[in-house]
Amino acid sequence: QLQLQESGPGLVKPSETLSLTCIVSGASISSGGYYWGWIRQPPGKGLEWIGSIFHSGSTYYNPSLQSRVTIPVDKSKNQFSLKLSSVTAADTALYYCARHSFRTWSFDYWGQGTLVTATS
Amino acid sequence: DIQMTQSPSSLSASVGDRVTITCRASQSISKYLNWYQQKPGKAPRLLIYTASSLQSGVPSRFSGSGSGTDFTLTISSLQVEDFATYFCQQSSTIPYTFGQGTKLET
Description:
Chain A is mainly β. Chain A is built from no helices and twelve strands. In chain B, 34% of the residues are buried.
């Protein structure tokens, strides 16, 4: 059974870099047919796609965040990460990692989410 | 960006009711529309992909239809466990975008 688990600090200071990791179990991140992505949800608000990565390293980012986002992949550890620089209070959100399937063109598996608060 | 607009934002219904939620895209997205269910404190769950395909394990009372710019999610006979928030999401064009959500309440 595929599982995704986010990990990382729950607090980050404004102007610093938010770093999260998504550990994938039950399937290889190198298997074809899937992108691996990050989605966030500010408290009480809707969902925003941040970006996605293929195991080859190809990435797609939301243009609204592109200047501040990188999503590296570590195939040896079967995990991928999110780095968001120069955070502000507006980046406070529940961050989810998810699998994006080429077959269904949808996010078919999600992690449980991790809350990150930008505060001094 | 493609804007996704859901209606209504909230909906009051009862067990056994037939419920319909609408999602409209600001431009054509062909069939690339997905529906998710989210319960408080939980991650979203995929219900319907590419407008009308039922995700494995999802009860058959859920169905989706539409193409182009107008889409609907229908729950044929509402069950207690269906009270949740529902989101649509387009995967036609990057950036992928979501609707603002429809909260289904008793």
